[in-house]
Amino acid sequence: MPVRHQVQGHGECVPTSIAILLGISKDDVIATAKPSHLNAWSEILAVENYELYWEIVPMLLDAAFGPAVAWQYINRAGRVFRPKRCPTGRGLITITFNNRRIGHMVAFASDMIYDPMLPWPVKWDSWRRYYENRNMSFTVGNVIHVF
Fold first, then answer.
1. Per-residue pLDDT, 52
2. Dist CA 58 CA 134 (whole Å)
3. What angle do CA 113, 75, 83 make, to 5 degrees?
4. CA of 39: how far to CAs of 32, 102, 146, in Å?
């Protein structure tokens, strides 16, 4: 399954990271998960829908990769990992920006980070430096292996 880098829209890091690993369009992933009463994925990020967002993430992971991957996400929530280099294999990394209290998800594969906020994939050290140089250091919250 080929990995295909994509750039996210507002608040679309989760479906875009999943789409990167699956080699499909982020719009296809969003279409399978967006509740019908919402007009756009970005509405999930509204304050009143915050809990809905965290219900949808495990559902997306289950649909894309199976229940074992969704369980990794749920079971490891709230933990902090301190990897020194890119994890092996393919998967997803959740992070929390230390100065912003917001989360983000990226994909990893073949020793590269596929961050949907960036225009192209980068190596681990370059990825960390990119955010540190912008005063956006982060904590890794979860490493989810999918393949």
1. 73
2. 30
3. 35
4. 14, 23, 30
